[in-house]
Specification:
Length: 175
């Protein structure tokens, strides 16, 4: 699936949340952010290798949808809605047919438009070579993303249930 529809779905989800649900979501996103910060600290040697040896190879010659998904957009926009315009602008350069450099690199070369503590899951948890030294931290980030995803899925089911209940209560059934 192309990124633009995923982005619009993330915006729609956030817009549909009540204030209470938005606060709960922000709490889950803050846990993701804290997990990402702990991973970044623990992975300092790996990140140094990424910067100096690979020079951002993981951001080159990729299909953008392999790096970022709808839940990443929810996470990022839930904590920094000001990025919505920037992300939307980057998506105008989306080309789903060919691999290219990541569309979320500033001016097409970098650095990433997302702040260090607000990165998509794949971008923060994928390292070249062995990452055994940060396995626990990677697992925490992934687990935090799963919690957020389930929270959103449950909210969607509750909304659907309310809609069905409302639809059925508005109809009079004749036997």
């Amino acid at each position: 699936m192309a990124l633009t529809p995923q982005f619009h779905e993330a915006v729609r989800i956030l817009d549909a949340f009540s204030d209470k649900d938005r606060l709960l979501l922000e709490g889950l996103c803050m846990k993701i952010r804290a997990s990402e910060a702990a991973l970044t600290d623990a992975a300092a040697p790996l990140l140094k290798r990424c910067i100096f040896s690979c020079q951002g190879l993981c951001c080159r010659n990729v299909t953008p949808e392999s790096l970022i998904h709808m839940m990443d957009f929810v996470f990022i926009l839930a904590l920094d809605r000001s990025l919505e315009k920037t992300v939307s602008s980057c998506l105008k350069n989306e080309n789903a047919l060919y691999t290219s450099d990541c569309i979320f690199l500033k001016d097409g070369t970098g650095p990433c438009i997302f702040p260090d503590d607000l990165r998509p899951q794949v971008c923060i948890t994928a390292f070249c070579g062995k990452d055994h030294s940060v396995g626990k931290e990677i697992a925490r980030v992934k687990k935090a993303f799963v919690r957020m995803e389930w929270f959103i899925r449950i909210r969607k089911l509750k909304t659907l249930g309310k809609w069905i209940q409302h639809s059925l209560s508005d109809r009079s059934f004749r036997v």
